[in-house]
Amino acid sequence: MLFLSRECQMLLVLSVFSLSTVSVFADTLSSTIQTENAIQKNAVQSQKTIDGLDDRTRAMLDEYRSATRQIKTLQTYNKHLKSLLESQEIEKASFAEQLEQIETTQQEIVPLILDMQASLAEFVQLDLPFLPQERQQRINSLKEMMSRADVSNAEKFRRLIEAYQIENDYGNTIEAYRANIELDGEISSVDFLRLGRIALYYQRLDGSETGMWNHTEKKWEKLSSDYRNPIRQGLRIARKEAAPDLLTVPVPTAEEAMQ
């Protein structure tokens, strides 16, 4: 049997204790390292989670800001639309009122147009007999138009006003034109000279006869040969072949002209 000395026994005990301590320390260190690694992994994962949350938060913030801007834009647009709708309602009411007035005006304007057309026809019939075919054709055209359903009252009124304006202009101009006339029972081609609506003269093409319209008697009457040259000069002036000048020609009195 082997016996160890006391010193050897103590040394063996210390060696065993040291090995046990080292083993425990190693286990503790390994556990600590594992714990630290786990903590670091958790920290990294937590940081990733935090970063992800931060990104989502930023995205949500951007969406919120965008939605806020859109809301403000829509509010402004809606306010504008409301203003437009209010304006359109006012215009609608105005149009409705105008339509009612138009219906009333339509009822009133038709008799007015017919009266104007009849008055113009009568005026031309009583006026100096210049350009008879042209003027009568205009009157007939207006009369025919009055019964046409495809022509609006506005167009009828416009055409009437245009005809009145043409007739009005005759009173402010002089004119020379050539046409046929019945003299002594024969149809002859003559030159006519119109001085506004004051007087209407004729002269044969060879200058052998000069005359004027007698508004009182409603017929043509011959003038003396003294007026041949003045009438000829008047024709040249009306045709712009001569400069304007004074003419010595007979004219009806104001009372005769108004008959």
Structural overview:
InterPro entries: UCP028069. The chain is of the alpha+beta class and 259 residues long. The chain has five helices and five strands; from the N terminus they run H-H-H-E-E-E-E-E-H-H. Among the domains are: 63 residues; 85 residues, no CATH class. It has a five-stranded antiparallel β-sheet with strand order 1-2-3-4-5, with helices on one face. Strand 3 and strand 4 form a beta hairpin. Helix 1 crosses helix 2. 9% of the residues are buried.
Shape: rod-shaped
SS content category: alpha+beta
Strand residues, percent: 5-15%
**Uncertain ranges:** none
Task: Please compute the radius of gyration using only Cα atoms.
Answer: 58 Å
Gap between N and C termini, in Å?
A: 181 Å
Order of helices and strands: HHHEEEEEHH
Q: Helix fraction?
A: 55-70%
Question: In order across it, which strands form the biggest sheet?
Answer: 1-2-3-4-5
- The total count of strands amounts to 5
Write the layout of secondary structure elements.
Layout: H1 6-126, H2 132-146, H3 153-170, E1 174-183, E2 186-195, E3 199-204, E4 210-214, E5 219-222, H4 228-238, H5 254-258
Antiparallel strand pairs: 1-2, 2-3, 3-4, 4-5
Helix pairs in contact: 1-2, 1-3, 2-3
Signal peptide: 1-26
Pfam family, one: DUF3450
Protein name: Energy transducer TonB
Provide a compact summary of the structure.
The protein is of the alpha+beta class and 259 residues long. Helix content is 66%, strand content 14%. Strands 1-2-3-4-5 form a five-stranded antiparallel sheet, covered by helices on one side.
